[in-house]
Amino acid sequence: MKIERELMRGAGPVAVLKLLEPGEKYGYELVKDLAKRSDGVLAMGQSTLYPMLYNLQAKGLIAARMDKAENGRPRKYYRLTGKGKKRLAHDTQQWQAVTAAMGALGITGNLQGA
Amino acid sequence: MTKTSFRRRLWKTPMRDLVRGRITGRLDIDRLLEESSLSEVAAGKVRKVVKRTRLWRLEKVDVAHELIAHFLDGIEADTPIDELIETFGNETQTAKLIRRAKKRQRPMVWHAFAWARLCFAVFFGVYFVTALYLMTGSPSVTTDYLAVLNRKAVGVPVDEAAWPIYREALLQLDLYREAEWDSPTPYYLDMSDEDKEKYRREKEMYGGDMMGDSSGEYYIDELDPPYISSRWDRLANSLRAGDPGWDQTAEYLRKQAEVLELIRRAASLPSMGLSVGFKGDYAPLDRKAMGLDRQPIQETNTQKRLDSPDRALINVLLPQLGSLRRLSLLLLADTSRAVIEGDGDTAYNNIVAVLGIAQHADEQPLLINGLFRVYLQTMVYRSVQEVMTTKPGLWSDDQLRKLAHRIAGIEMTPEDWFNGERLWFYDFLQRIYTDDGEGGGRITRQGIDRFQLYGGSIDAFSGPESAPRSVLIVAGLPAASLLLAPRAEMRQIYDGLIDRTIVEFRRPLWLADGSETVKDSVVKMASSMRTQVRYMPITLFFPAMSAMSRAIHTQEGYRDGVLIGIALELYRREHGDWPGALDELVPGYLPSVPVDRLTGEAVRYRVAGDGPVVYSLGEDGDDDGGRSPVDEGGEVDNDMAGPGQFGAENMADEKHDGDWVLWPVPGEG
Known about the structure:
The complex is a heterodimer.
Chain A: H1 5-20, E1 25-26, H2 27-37, H3 46-58, E2 62-68, E3 74-80, H4 82-104, H5 108-113
Antiparallel strand pairs in A: 1-3, 2-3
Chain B: H1 6-11, H2 15-19, H3 29-36, H4 40-53, H5 57-76, H6 81-88, H7 91-104, H8 108-135, H9 145-149, H10 151-154, H11 163-173, H12 186-189, H13 193-206, E1 209-212, E2 218-221, H14 233-238, H15 246-255, H16 257-268, H17 284-290, H18 301-307, H19 319-340, H20 344-361, H21 367-390, H22 397-408, H23 414-432, H24 445-455, H25 467-483, H26 487-506, H27 518-527, H28 529-534, H29 536-541, H30 545-575, E3 604-608, E4 611-616, H31 648-651, E5 660-663
Antiparallel strand pairs in B: 1-2, 3-4, 4-5
Helix pairs in contact in B: 3-5, 4-5, 4-7, 8-25, 11-16, 11-17, 16-20, 19-20, 19-21, 20-21, 21-23, 21-30, 22-30, 23-26
C-alpha cells in the first residue's frame, strides 16, 4: 500500500528516528528496515530518504559520521542526538494520541481489534 | 582504477586541502563513480542527481558518496540493481529535495546572506516597478494662480490706474541708464573711509555699484542722482544744507519738479493697476521703465530660471516694487529739500504721496508686497518726525490734522499677505505632484526636476534630459515618493502653519503664553532629518513669518508714536505747553491713548528737558524712563527693545536694558 505524500511527510521522520533509537544505521539499512518493519507501508527510495536525513541532521535531531564498512568502503552512519531522543519521545506520544483518537473514531481500532 | 593526471587532481582539490599542502582530488565525482564500479545506469543516475543539486562542490561529493554507498550496499545485500534503480526515484525531484535539505545545513552566515540577497532582490524589484509606476504620473496645472494674484489689478478702471503715470515718471527719470563713474559723487564724498574702501573694491570687482533686486541678481546701479540709490536710505533722509553733496542734490530735485508732480499725481489715484507677470510678460515700455532689460553682470542659475519659459508662480517678477521704492526715496529726499527751504506744502504733499505709493505697492496679496508697504510707511513716519523736530512750525494745524487722519486711516490686511503666500505654494504643489482630483497626489519626475532646479543642481528647464540625469530621476522617484509627504498632507501641514501664523499675529503680543510658535514648529521640523525631508518644500521655502509679524507690529508701534507726536504738537500749539498726561489728549486730539503693544497697558509718557517722550516698556516690561537700549558698539538701537527683537531675558541685562521709544524715535529725524 502506497502512503499519501502528506501522511508520509509526517510519519517518515518519526519512523526514521525510531529506527535509529537502538543505535546507528546507514542509509540502505534504514530503507530496508523501514520496508521490512512497516510491511512495506513506509518504504521509501533514496529520493525521499536522503533529503529527510539531511533535514533531520539540519535540525540537530540526528548526527552523521563517516566510517569504513567491513569491506573497507566509506559509509555514512546516522545516530540519534539528545535532541532527537527528546523529539522521538514527544512525537511518539503525539502519534499514540492520534492513534488512540483514530481508534476511538473506529479507524485504527477496527484494525487492532480485527 | 584509472590513474588521474596531476593537473586534474589539482583542479579537483578543495582550497582547504591545498592550503594544507595536500592535493587530494576529492572533488572528482567522476573518479568516485569510476572507482565504485557501479553500472552505467546507476552511475548515470547518481551523476545526474549530483549535478542537478547545484550544491557547493564539497556538498556534491558528500551526496555522491552517500548515493554510491546506497547502491553498493544494496548490491551487497543481493538486491537486484534494477530494483535499486527503480526505487531510486525521479532524478530531478531527488536533486531538488536534496538541494533544499542540504542548504538547510549550511552555516548561519550563509543563511543571513541569502536572506539579505533575497530581500535586496525583492526590494529592487518593488523599487523598479514603483519607479515605472511613478514615471507614468505627471503634474497637471489646473489653477492659474497668477490670475488670482492679479485679480485686483485687472479690475482697476483705466482712469483710476496709477501705473501709467508712474511709468511715465520712471521713463523721464531714466533711472536705469548706464552708470557714470568718472566723477566722485556726493554720497561717495560723504562715506566713511571704511565704506569708501569697500565701495572701491566693489567697483573694481564688478565695474559698478552693486544693487540686489527681487531676483537676487546684481546689476550696475546708477550713481546719479545719489539719493535714490537703494544703499543709502538713511543718508537720503538725514541730509542737511551744508552736507557734502547737498547742493547738487537740491539742484537735481529742483530740476525734477515736474516728474515729482507726476509721481504725486499717480500716488493720489486709488489703485496701481499693474498686472505682474513673468519676465517676458511685461510690455516694452514697462520693461524700459523698470529696467527689466538690464544685463546682469553675472548670469546665475536664478537668472536662467527667470529667463526660461517656466511659468511657475515662483518665477513671477515684482519689479514695480524696486521702482516704487526709488520714487518714494526721491519724494522723501525732496521732502528734506522742502523742509530746508521752508516749503511746508511740498513736504506735506510728498509725505502723503509716499503713503499712496505704499498702498499701491500692496496690490498683490503677497507678503513681500506687504512688507514693502510696511517699510515705506515706516520711512514716512521717520520723515514726519524729521519735519516736526527740525521745523515744528512748518506744517499748519490743518495739515497736521489731515496727516494724522490720513495715517490713522491706513488700513492694512496682513492676513491677506499671509494667505497670499499659499498661492505660490499651491502652485508649487500642482507642479510637482499628480492630481487625483481630491486634493491628493504623488510626486512626479517633473517634481524631482523642480527640486533640482531650485536646489541649483540644474540650470533651467532647457532641452532634453541627459541619460545620466534621467537615470537619476528614475532612481530617485520611489525614494522621493516614500520620503516626501504626499500632496494632501503637504498642503495640510503648510495650511496649518499659515493658519497658526494668522492666529499668532492677531493675538496681542502681551498675551503670548510661551507655547510653541510657528517659528518653533518650523525649526523643529527642520531639525529632524525625517521631517526635514518629508516636508522639504516647507522647510526650504517657508518664510520667516515670525520676523514678518514682528516687522508689522513694530511699524504699528511707530504709527502709534507718530499719531501721538502729532497730537502732542497740536496740544502744545493750543495750550502753550505739553500736556501733563496723555489722557489730556483724549478726545480732542486722539480718540484714545494707544496701548503699549508689549504690555497691554497705556503707552508711557514723560516730558524731559528737550521735549516729550512716548514709549513702550519694551520686551523686559520695566520702566527705564524712556531710554532706548544701546547695542554692543554703544550705539542707540531702539528697535532692540521692540517686539520680539531681542527677547525679554536679554533685555533684562544691564547692557541691553531700555524702553522701546515710539516718539520721537532716537537717531531718526
